[in-house]
Amino acid sequence: MCPGSTILRRALRLGLYAALGWVGFYLLVIPLAGYLSYLAAFMFPLVVVLEVVGFARAVTSRGRWAWVYLLGNTGMLVATGVVFVEGLVELSVHQQPDTRVTAPLYLALVVLGLVVGVVAGARMRRPAP
After folding, report:
1. Looking at the predicted structure, is the pLDDT value of residue 1 above 60?
2. In 64-94, which positions are buried (b, 16+ CB within 10 angstroms) versus exposed (e)?
3. Shortest CA distance to 53 belongs to which of 40, 72, 74, 75?
4. Cβ-based neighbours of 18, under 8 Å, separated by 6 or more
5. In angstroms, rounded to a whole number, what is the distance separating the alpha carbons of residues 116 and 120?
6. Position with higher pLDDT, 112 vs 88
7. pTM for this prediction
8. DSSP 63
9. How far apart are the C-alpha atoms of 49 and 98, rounded to whole Å?
10. What is d(CA 68, CA 83) in angstroms, rounded to the nearest whole number?
C-alpha cells in the first residue's frame, strides 16, 4: 500500500466525519430552536462544543468514541427522517400539523435518536471505519 492512498483514506475519513458532524449539528439545533425559541441561543454554544469535542475524540481515537460520534449523529439523522415521513403522512391526509405538539415531539425524537446512537456506539467493540 502506497503512502498516498493512506493519506487519501485519512482525508476522506476526516471529511466524512466532519460532514456527518455538520449535518448532526443542524439536526439538533433546528428542533432545539423550534421548541425553545430564543432560549436556544443559550444552548447553541453547548451544542457547538459537543460536536467539536465529539469530532476531535472520534478522529484521534478510532475506538468507542468514534462509534459514539458516528452512531449518535446517525441516530439523529434517522429520527429526523422518521419525523419528516410522519409530517408527509400528516399532510397527505390534509391535516395541518400543530406546532405546539410537533415541536417538542420532534426535539424528543431527535434527542432519543442521539441517546440510542450514543449507547449503541459505546457498546461497540470493533474499531470504527
Report:
1. no
2. bbbbbbbbbbbbbbbbbeebeeeeeeeeeee
3. 72
4. 55
5. 6
6. 112
7. 0.85
8. S
9. 32
10. 22
Sequence-distant contacts of 46-55: CB under 8 A, at least 24 apart: 51/21, 51/24, 51/25, 54/21, 55/17, 55/18, 55/21
pLDDT of residue 119: 94
Is 103 in contact with 34 (CB distance < 8 Å)? Answer: yes
For residue range 60-75, what is the model confidence (pLDDT) as tens digits? 877 788 889 899 999 9
Residue with cell 446517525: 74
Nine-digit cell at 15? 471529511
Domain definitions of the chain by residue range:
3-122
